[in-house]
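Researcher: Next entry in the queue.
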Amino acid sequence: MSRSPLFDLADEYVERGARMSPMAATELGIRDLDDQLDTFTIAEADAEASLSKEVVEKAKALQPIDEIDAISKAVLIERLESRLKLHQSKESFITYSPIVNPATYIRQIFTIMPTEGDKSIANMAARLNLVGKSLEGWKSTLQEMDSLGLKTARRQVLVVAEQLKTYANGGWADMARQLDPFDKYPALHQAAKNASAASQEMSDWLRNTHAPRSNEQDAVGQERYQPWARYFTGAELDLKATYEWGLADLQRINDRMYKAAAKLGLRDKSLKEVADHCENAELHRIDGEEALLKKLRDFTEEAVKYLNGKYFDIDERIAFCDARIAPTGAAAAPYYIPPTEDLSRPGTTWYPTLGHKRFNFWHIASTWYHEAVPGHHLQFATAALEKDRLSRFQRTGAWISGYGEGWALYAERLMEELGFLSDPGDRLGMLDGQRMRAARVVLDLGVHLGKDNLEGTGKWDFDYALAFMRKNVNMSDQFVNFEVHRYFGWPGQAPSYKIGQRIWEQIRDEYAKREGANFNIKEFHMRALNLGSIGLDTLEKALLG
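Model: Structure for this entry, 545 residues:
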């Protein structure tokens, strides 16, 4: 039975959109397009934009039947209009980074496809054989943008070229070998070779043809930055005030880290020395990928058992969150992929080993609260169950970084409040992660708005940004280098984490103050999560009125 015309419209948009994007269909769990790939052409993007315009016009003409409907309407219109602005300005074509680009999207879709049985392997092979066509489609888009004088920063062109080279030099072949170690499906291995050749060809074109005519400048400027900031937060931001707040927050976190280090007997050490001590300590050492995956799954299971019934109501259908090793060439940081609509594929966390076989959990504990429970998994999987409160679009396509990543950082701090990061090493790991998020508020705004660097010796540039992050992040150079490239190519996204956390914490404090003795933290959490992904301005209105 239909809930309302608005919910019907949202369902229609998701279904028609999935039919335009086979990769989106796979994410949703729609199986009959698993042998196809998106083309990444302008024509494909224009068709999707045309659908969005049509749906926005229809949504504006519909009258909500209740508050649930009103929120659904607001989210649908705000998200589609934000995307349309980026499409119409061509920003969505020329802005890409090592973490978000067609090449990484293509590689990632293979990690969530069914792999059991002849049909699944045939779909894999068919998709691998289409990698070249997809990359050619993307090439045509980049060529068209170049003819219009719209260019991507050269640094991003080159880093994506290097990613494609990684896929070509073993990435696709390794995937096929893992799926079929005994060569039962020769067509799969040939398809992997075809994908490798296509990836190498695209890598060479990006490096040798596209990069020389790309933009030497990294900064996008305020005019381009503001729509991205709005898109990633669903809020109107005072950028100058946000930059100053980021600086103050970074200093506050640094102060807390020195206090935590003192509890480890490292009072006179630099934060780099403290991190090295924690990384080399035997207490939290884990050897081997399988031991790491077991630890991650057990860790999440423990969180679920403790939180369920006290701080959240966790449905048994979503109590399990898987953990897997990220494929070669994926992001350098852990990430989460939500479950399918029908929950046939569980929500899954992914850990990039970057070639390492030994791990230290001091820096992983808070990250897994962020990625799994009570962070992204609880957030996404709870929304997946809320078919009476949330439209299909809200459950599957309305992701807003400020809401989602802000919640995940709030989840880290919540677990600290509940005593789960009482170990000084684990607390330092959490603070170091928070420190990184605060540092990138400063870096992202400093770079893209062309601000003077903190010493007043010039503008923020790549070398200065890299040195700044090395000073404020206790992680490998490989990770830091990846992250800085990411910020340079994805304006407005990195600050949304800390901005979102700040607003989540402010809302909870105000909500508790308003409720007084009647405040129930479980009721607050479930009410908030049941809203689904929503802009930060709308979130505040929905929870505080």
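Model: Residues 154-179 form the longest helix (26 residues).
Researcher: Noted, moving on.
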